[in-house]
Amino acid sequence: MSLKCLFSVIESPLHPRLTAVYEANGVEEVQFTSMRKALAALKKQKPDYIAAEFFYGYGNNYAGVNISNLDVLLYSLQKYAPDTKVIVFVDKKERGYVDKLNDILPLYAVLQFPVSPAKVTGLLR
């Protein structure tokens, strides 16, 4: 049985460190410190899962086109890895904005901070 692969896109200190949970469930974690690096890797490898934080684009430089930091990733998944399951970590105050991303690509799970390792384990089984 081969290990499943999970891309962790860690863009802030709030991102939960779940390496031990992933390993215990037969999932190999590949960590990225920027969305740009994760997108480059996505063109070469199709992960089973992606775990990333959601940041709503309040008055951002997205010119009103994008909802958040995850939009480009989700559009890229449509092309390169449409079967990848996306797990989103979100702060309570931004939870109401996440569901808009389902219009781009259905999200596998949305977990609000603090993230429970038990919930993540349930998603990986």
What does this protein look like?
The protein is an alpha/beta fold and 125 residues long. 29% of the residues lie in helices and 22% in strands. The protein starts with a strand and ends with a helix.
Secondary structure blueprint with pairings:
Layout: E1 4-9, H1 19-24, E2 27-32, H2 35-42, E3 49-53, H3 71-80, E4 85-90, H4 95-98, E5 109-112, H5 117-124
Parallel strand pairs: 1-2, 1-3, 3-4, 4-5
Helix pairs in contact: 2-3
In short:
This protein is an alpha/beta fold. The protein is 29% helix and 22% strand.
Task: Tell me about the largest β-sheet.
Answer: 5 strands, parallel
Order of helices and strands: EHEHEHEHEH
Give the number of helices. Answer: 5
CATH superfamily descriptor: Response regulator
Number of strands: 5
Number of domains: 1
Indicate the percent of residues in helices: 25-40%
Mean pLDDT: 92
Features:
5 helices; alpha/beta; 5-stranded parallel beta sheet; globular; Rossmann fold
